[in-house]
Input
Amino acid sequence: MPPDPRSSPDDGRAPREACLPAGLSAADDALLARLASGLQRRGLTAPAIVTLECLRPAAFLGGQAMRVLSPLVHLASEGGDWDRLAQIFEVRGSVERLLAHLEGRPVALAQPEPTETVPDAAYVVIDCGSTTTKAVLIKHCDGRYRLGGRAEAPTTVEAPTEDVMVGVDTALRLLQEQTGHAILDHDGRIERATGPDRGVGHLLATSSAGGGLQMVVLGLVRTMTAASAERAALGAGAILADVVAWNDAGTPTERIERLRESRPDMVLLAGGTDGGAIDQVVALAEQLAAAELNPRWGRGRLPVVYAGNADAAEAVLEVLDPVAEAVVAPNLRPDLETENLGPVRRVLHDVFLRHVMVRAPGYPRLQELCRSRVLPTPVGFGEALELLAAEHGEAVAIDLGGATCDVFSVRGGEVYRSVSANLGLSFSLGAVCERAGWVRVGRWLPMAVTEDELRDRVRNKMIRPTTLPQTPEDLLLEQAAAREAVRLAIVDHAEALQPLHGRGDGPRGIEALRVTEVPETGIDWAAVDLILGSGGPLAHAPRRRQAAAILIDACRPQGVTRLAVDSVFIMPHLGALGRLDTEAAAQVLASDAVVVLGTVVGPVAGREPGPGDPLATIRLHGGAAPRSDREVALTGGELTSLPLPDGEADLEIVPAPGWDFGAGPDRAVRTVVAGGPAGVILDGRGPRLPWPAAELARRELVHQWLTTLDALPGRDLA
Amino acid sequence: MSAGRQGPFVEPRAVLERRRELPIRGRVLLEVGDRVDRDTVVASARTRGAMHTVNAAVQLDIPGAELPRSMLRAVGDEVAAGEPLARSRGFFGLLASECRAPVAGTIAAVSAHTGRILLEEPGDLVEVRAFLPGIVTACEPERGVTVAGWAARVAGVFGVGGEVAAELVPAVGRADATLEAAALDERHAGTILLGGAVVDAAALARATELGVAGLVTGGVHDAALARWLGRETVLADTTGLAAPFTLVIVGGFGRVPMTEETFDLLRSHAGRVVGLSGHTRVRAGALRPEAIVPLDEVPDARPAATRPPALSPGCTVQVVRAPWFGHRGRVGALPDEPVRVESGARCLVAHVDLDAGVTAVVPRANLEVLAGPETPEVT
Output
């Protein structure tokens, strides 16, 4: 089990002097231990670890550490230690030594575990989802890593089993049976790798079991610190149970009641800029303390991360200490113009592992088995998407599940994530229809259905969420709702990505407080090179073309965009693997995880194409299609496709005057496009789909679109 | 976690076990072996009260840091409404001002940083009753007890409204009948009604007007339900949803005839007091509604756990999705390989000899097992 960061760092066992870094005496080590203990007592373990980890690559600078660490050292050490600490940090290895004391593993550092690496050894990666635990084998063969097999078993973190390891063991045994690869030894322990074909080099895990990391975030101003705290929590892979702001309507009593109704794993408290007034954020901490929240799992005090005005940290810790396990992170809004989320995310992840994960039934044993930290599933997913983006360019991923829809976008190397809590296709199907409106869902159907009938079908899926659509009508209904769920999740993503209130590109200073409307922002679809669909309704649509049709209709891509699905849902696994072996993760992503559906071409927003308006002449050269060279004149309102079942082809787009297909108005686009089951789809419908007013005309048009994309279910519904 | 329902759904005579838990930690009032009636209180707790913030430093015109020194009462003290909480020193005792408690409660915190006092009102008493007559078979300290008792039971698939107990009165004569407003009159006030395939919007309104305590029905149209509740049920979680009376749906949304077994079992208990719970939570904890008719016996000890019937050749099933929604049948074959069904989805299927006289290929995920293969032929 990971050590309690508040316990004594050396557990009474003195580290062996012989193993200390050269130049560091036992007395120096004792001083580092005392500093670590002081930091721990003040709840500063997490920020200190983050700071030191950031410093590690520049460790050769030695004493410069003192400059970076000075705020923490001042808080946690005696005045007389200052000079000696400055000298100690001149010693190579002293930063690692302080880290070891902070992490409660001084002996482990002194006697490092022999690390035996077997070249090309297999990896096993486990994702403990809320419903199923999925184990995958990543194996080296023919000079590269490939997916060697996949097995799943029910997740067992909740009653009656209440031990995540039962599901993990079952999944590992199934994986061993299915692949024939030795994963477990006779005693049921992980078999050590002896070569590429036997044993496991590293076991890794991600988890969203038990509903994932449930968080409540608090801030002073909804559109400023509360919004920044929300982004930090989402970026750390959290599901938000509530966002509470000081400037929300309602009395303190109502705020405390709201907090009491939530049952989070962890709380993030933000508020105030450094150097500003401390009263409000301390009062908010008092209200949080008054709510006396209990952690969702196990007993003990609730972890609270404070990432607000640094001047208020001491007062906030004093208020929270009796009821919460409070730690301090760097202020996420040190001034109005700056949002500093990275360090807070790392502290959240650290606290999640140290305080939340260890309380969840069975997790300490899972963590012991893993060679690196267990990641929240969405973090794994985001990191795999980053790998994909490095190859394909700007990317957007949509993970549509039964209860929620996550949207990830990668821009300029940063991953942004939003979670739409009640946009899913089983438990939350009713919420999708309610939010979108029954008419908006119904308009995607090529057949006549009354609203009453639609409502009854939707409710029946909600109350029996594991049933499957047997009739074409039921499948069309679920896929209609999928279009609306994705569309709405993208709206939520845009809202989460709005310009920073208080910063240059958004409302500034006090003006930010007065702005209530969300600016029109979000994903720049013309810059997106890849849209990836994940989750059952997209990755397991009966026909791949149906997934492509849903993504095109919901996202309205612009320019030239590749479409793909995460066919076996191993993105989180590959994100975890990427931390250890980026090349192996990239190889499996390319060869096994991502199925390219095809490419879609459409005009860039800014002009609405009228019916029949000439938009572009499009030529496709090469590829293994029936005809090697094809030319199409794309017009407004038109949807058509060119078969390109596999491989790649050269695409040339010559826009009609005034039209832009990604290279700028009137500029031709020449690129290589990927084929797939959906081929190359030419979409001249524009950003706003041309819905006819007449019901019969609408049904005919939807039928025509589905026919063009070859996305109708089993039989024709005309 | 599984969101699929597992049987048995209709039990004419069984020993049921129910955990009766407090929503918060409290006191368990009984011990293992104690006998309980429906209304016996098994555990109680007091909720936390509303919090009041008193801006004492502002009222006293002192810096926040001086508040602790100015307090007349300490953290943890109970105070009456209007009682002085803190007093400023003033100028040599002159011009001193007081800050008084706006409500009766306990002092929860005094802040030297913000100069505020937090006052907590007394909470409410929460009591959990046995609901199922029988004996206590297990106690969980501070949480609640497990009660076991003989009863007949019908499982619902969706419901609204909390626990209620009242006389059961059939309001229709057949399992496939529609419950209409014209069938209801003053005699139904305070009773639990037994409906058939569907209840219409007018009947729901009339039942509310009459003060009906509950209703068991095969189905209801969602539009009628929304109109009756005055709101949409957007999530499959009704634990916090207020309803005019407790409604338990045993089939699904739309017109779904009750199975003869269900209808006949409930009708056979007409005139008896039935316990009804409408609370439903499909996800996370899977809570489904039910109707329980206690029988006049008390089990001697904790019953042995029974396994729900598994899907196997010869077992009786009900189809819970179109195109055969609501039909019953007997399973013939269970092919090992996935099959592509009409929608194009590939899935494991069962061949089912339906009561409609046809053999249908149905995704296994769309079947609920009513009884194992050893039971007699479906009627």
Q: What stands out?
A: Chain B is about 10% helix and 35% strand. The helical segments of chain B are 56-60, 67-70, 201-210, 222-229, 260-268. The radius of gyration of chain B is 28 Å.
